[in-house]
Amino acid sequence: MSKRDYYDVLGVTRTAEVTEIKTSYRKLAIKYHPDKNPGDKEAEDKFKEAAEAYEVLSNPEKRRRYDQFGHAGNSASGYGGGGMNMDDIFSQFGDIFGGGNPFESFFGGGGGGTRGGRRVQRGTNLRIKVKLTLEEIAKGVEKKVKVNKQVKCNTCDGTGAKDKNSYHTCNTCGGSGSVRRVTNTILGQMQTTSTCPTCNGEGVEITAKCTSCKGEGLVRGEETISINIPAGVSEGMQLSMSGKGNAAPRGGIPGDLIILVEEVPHETLKRDGINVIYDLYINFADAALGTSVEIPTIDGKAKIKIEPGTQGGKILRLKGKGLPEVNSYHKGDQLVYVNVWTPKTVSKEEKELLEKLKNSANFKPQPGKSEKSFFERIKEYFE
Ligand SMILES: [Zn+2]
Ligand SMILES: [Zn+2]
């Protein structure tokens, strides 16, 4: 089998610069890449042929010998005879594609940023609301949220191209994404660089668009995202997850996911900053005789003792039973506001009993120095 001319294989002239050889080889390597042509022997041969041609023409010494002696010039190197094996070819890719999946690198994906000056598009940010219960806020929670967003098109692997033959390095800019223009001005020649109008700075020209995504490389889809909500967040707070927003067109950098915190009101507890408030109602008899009651807290029920002679309006403080501050060890308290319930109606029997009690000396209000005023209680609460 006679070998084809290396310059013909890469489709370059005998005077081509190394950059042109590289670009041309990259194009062929993507076109005939085994991942894109599984089981295709012809593609594999072309892939190897291009790799061999590149190996020789990208090396000044080998190229000189080839120019002088043809294929015989490099036979001793091993490439002139038996050709390259796949491992040799892939090890060469670090140089061509900068590592990783060549297809991705070619389109500026895989890590993002601008590659060789090419413009990489950015996906838009996505905003979602997450409803959280007080219990979830107290402990922090991992929320799995199904998000409707723009995702990479699977048909074209996000490239926007119809198939492997329908894209190539932009001819206008040679894949750099920018064009230089020299203009004559009164000050002399001026060189300006601007975004390539053909490929819009992307360095790749698509000749036939993927029909699933109309060339955008994006489709509407769903993604289930795990969001780690730290303990202590509050209504209206915004959390941000970098790169979890909408995917970018044709392998760019995805946007961020912005999570807006919404509190679900608790049935019995009210939040006040890092404190939690509970309104307790006890009857007059329990207030006078003392009792123990079960009350709700963020982490389950708790039993509290009501001392005999407890006045309405007393505030009990359960230390550390409140909410944590975000990113801090400081924790709030639960405050129990004791209300003494006065019956709105009484039976005849109850009325008689109350009439008997009301003239007792003990029932006469006699606030002393030991009673805290309303003002003092409020002050204490805000401490
Ligand atoms: Zn271009
Ligand atoms: Zn597509």
From TrEMBL:
Residues noted as binding Zn(2+) 1 in the record, renumbered to the chain: 153, 156, 210, 213
Keyword Zinc on entry: yes
Q: Which UniProt keywords apply?
A: Chaperone, Cytoplasm, DNA replication, Metal-binding, Repeat, Stress response, Zinc, Zinc-finger
A single Gene Ontology biological process assigned to it is: response to heat
**Broad class of where this protein is predominantly found:** cytoplasm
Domain J residues, every copy: 5-70
Q: Does the keyword Zinc apply?
A: yes
- What does the entry's cofactor note say about binding and number? Binds 2 Zn(2+) ions per monomer.
What residues does Zn(2+) 2 bind to?
A: 170, 173, 196, 199
Source domain of life: Bacteria
Start-end of each CXXCXGXG motif repeat: 153-160, 170-177, 196-203, 210-217
The compartments listed are: Cytoplasm
**GO MF entry, a single one:** zinc ion binding
Where do the coiled-coil regions begin and end?
none
Fetch the InterPro entries from UniProt. Answer: DnaJ, DnaJ_C, DnaJ_domain, DnaJ_domain_CS, HSP40/DnaJ_pept-bd, HSP_DnaJ_Cys-rich_dom, HSP_DnaJ_Cys-rich_dom_sf, J_dom_sf
| Residue spans crossing the bilayer | none
Residue ranges annotated as zinc fingers (CR-type) are 140-222
Domain CR-type as annotated: residue spans: 140-222
Q: Name a GO CC annotation attached to this entry.
A: cytoplasm
Q: Which cofactor does it need?
A: Zn(2+)
Main function:
Participates actively in the response to hyperosmotic and heat shock by preventing the aggregation of stress-denatured proteins and by disaggregating proteins, also in an autonomous, DnaK-independent fashion. Unfolded proteins bind initially to DnaJ; upon interaction with the DnaJ-bound protein, DnaK hydrolyzes its bound ATP, resulting in the formation of a stable complex. GrpE releases ADP from DnaK; ATP binding to DnaK triggers the release of the substrate protein, thus completing the reaction cycle.
Family classification: Belongs to the DnaJ family.
Indicate the quaternary assembly: Homodimer.
The entry's free-text remark on domains says: The J domain is necessary and sufficient to stimulate DnaK ATPase activity. Zinc center 1 plays an important role in the autonomous, DnaK-independent chaperone activity of DnaJ. Zinc center 2 is essential for interaction with DnaK and for DnaJ activity.
**PANTHER family in alphabetical order:** CHAPERONE PROTEIN DNAJ, DNAJ HOMOLOG 1, MITOCHONDRIAL-RELATED
What is the name of this protein? Answer: Chaperone protein DnaJ
Which species is this record about? Sphingobacterium mizutaii
